[in-house]
Specification:
heterodimer; A: mainly beta; five-stranded mixed sheet; 0% helix; B: seven-stranded mixed sheet
């Protein structure tokens, strides 16, 4: 699976949009971008995933560049409860062995009041 | 629906003792994963099962670790004998693969301390 690069930490003011970048310059054509987050003392929580089109759900939006070498997770109106470590993961689509998730160090996002 | 359920939430035991961690996946899920998280190494995949069969155990650190899945609703991760360096948070996750990229759902973990 392609390697990802994320900033170690970020800060955002409560109520503002939080934009978390991820670089995945070696991504292959059949690899998806997944985002998970881990709030302190809890298990990782799935947020969103995409292949090449932008995606939106009730939690966040995912913007993938046209060349697919980078993406941005957007939390439109950050709250204090969004303080967590955010992981960007790239993995292949449906195929045997594609279930494995490789977690990097992630971005520690702090939402400030 | 209930999520992935792990027990116990916390375990403190002495070095050399046998430790058994338990996991109940989400009903209908056909994949089950065991992860370990430490400050030094982050979140690592230990082993995963598909339809109760172990598929990849390359992440299991050594022979002291073993995992079983006797049926679709239960799995165990056993450490025997335990050592202080096994202290970590152990997570279980499950997913349904199907034909689309279904995400993994994680339990709240077992915080293990080996004295």
């Amino acid at each position: 699976d392609a390697k990802t690069t994320q900033p170690t930490s970020m800060d955002c003011a409560e109520g503002r949009a939080a934009n978390l970048p991820c670089n995945h310059s070696t991504i292959s054509g059949n690899e998806y971008v997944y985002w998970y987050r881990q709030i302190h003392s809890q298990g990782p929580q799935y947020i969103i995933h995409g292949l090449k089109n932008n995606e939106t759900n009730e939690m966040a939006s995912l913007i993938i560049t046209e060349d697919r070498k980078s993406s941005t997770l957007i939390l439109p109106h950050a709250t204090l409860r969004d303080t967590a470590v955010y992981y960007c993961i790239v993995r292949v689509g449906p195929s045997e062995g594609a279930q494995k998730l490789v977690f990097g160090q992630g971005t520690r996002l702090t939402i400030n009041p | 629906d209930a999520g992935v359920i792990q027990s116990p939430r916390h375990e403190v035991t002495e070095m050399g003792q046998e430790v058994t961690l338990r996991c109940k996946p989400i009903s209908g899920h056909d994949y089950l994963f065991w992860y370990r998280q430490t400050m030094m190494r982050g979140l690592e995949l230990l082993i995963y099962f598909n339809n109760n069969v172990p598929i990849d155990d390359s992440g299991m650190p050594e022979d002291r670790f073993s995992a079983k899945m006797p049926n679709a609703s239960f799995s165990t991760l056993k450490i025997q004998p335990s050592e202080p360096r096994d202290s970590a948070v152990y997570f279980c996750a499950s997913s349904f693969w199907g034909r689309t990229n279904q995400p993994q759902h994680f339990g709240d973990g077992t915080r293990l301390s080996i004295l």
